[in-house]
Amino acid sequence: MNGNVSLGEQIIYNIAAFFPFGIFLPVLIRKMQKLWRSAAAAAVLSAFIELTQLIFKCGLCELDDVINNTLGAAIGYGIWKGVSTAVNILRKSNLREDTKTSRQY
């Protein structure tokens, strides 16, 4: 039972570790504003980390870590996309209100 909790925590940590990657990559690099590009970049970075662990024999090299990290980046991307869409909607709404107000004077 205790091993299952530990495994579950590791999966959650691997997913959560790449949330920021998925959020900030499209903000910092305009070409990464597509889900598949951000997910591919996360997969490459995660695979590099896992291969480094294999080569230098530190930590465990596991394919599921690459999958979980990529999933975390995709979820982070979804958070970024949702927030940026909401901000754009609010901006457009405020622009319409400003235009209506300026026409009245």
Radius of gyration: 20 Å
Ends apart, CA distance between termini? 71 Å
Number of strands: 0
Strand content: under 5%
Compressed to H and E, one letter per element, the order equals: HHHH
Q: Largest beta sheet, briefly?
A: none
Quaternary state of this entry equals: single chain
Structure, described:
With 105 residues, the protein is mostly helical. Helices cover 86% and strands 0% of the residues. The longest helix is centred in the last third of the chain and has 42 residues, at 63-104. The radius of gyration is 20 Å and the shape is elongated.
Could you give a short description of this structure?
The chain is mainly alpha-helical. It contains four helices and no strands.
What attributes characterize this protein structure?
105 residues; elongated; mainly alpha
List the helices and strands and how they pair.
Layout: H1 2-17, H2 19-28, H3 35-56, H4 63-104
